[in-house]
Specification:
Largest sheet: 4 strands, mixed
Helix content: 10-25%
Order of helices and strands: EEEHHE
Structural class: alpha+beta
Number of helices: 2
Distance between the termini: 31 Å
Number of strands: 4
Shape: globular
């Protein structure tokens, strides 16, 4: 299932964390794929896991893809 709204993961900050936004809501800082999956589950994507996060074309990754967690 695709996320209900646009999902944007911003470039890594100095500490490696990436801001995650779903629609107009900032959900928090992710420090890995499991964090992004947790945010998606909270936003209603029940089956979100690391695999879905890493391969979903519905997630817009800014400043590097799902394997980029350092500046």
């Amino acid at each position: 299932m695709a996320p209900p709204q646009s999902v944007i993961v911003y470039p890594p900050g100095d500490d490696g964390g990436r801001r995650v936004r779903v629609g107009e809501r900032f959900l928090g800082m992710a420090y890995g794929l499991l964090d992004v999956a947790d945010f998606l589950r909270r936003a209603g994507v029940e089956e979100a896991d690391k695999q879905l996060v890493a391969t979903s074309g519905a997630i817009e990754w800014l400043g590097g893809g799902p394997d980029t967690w350092e500046r």
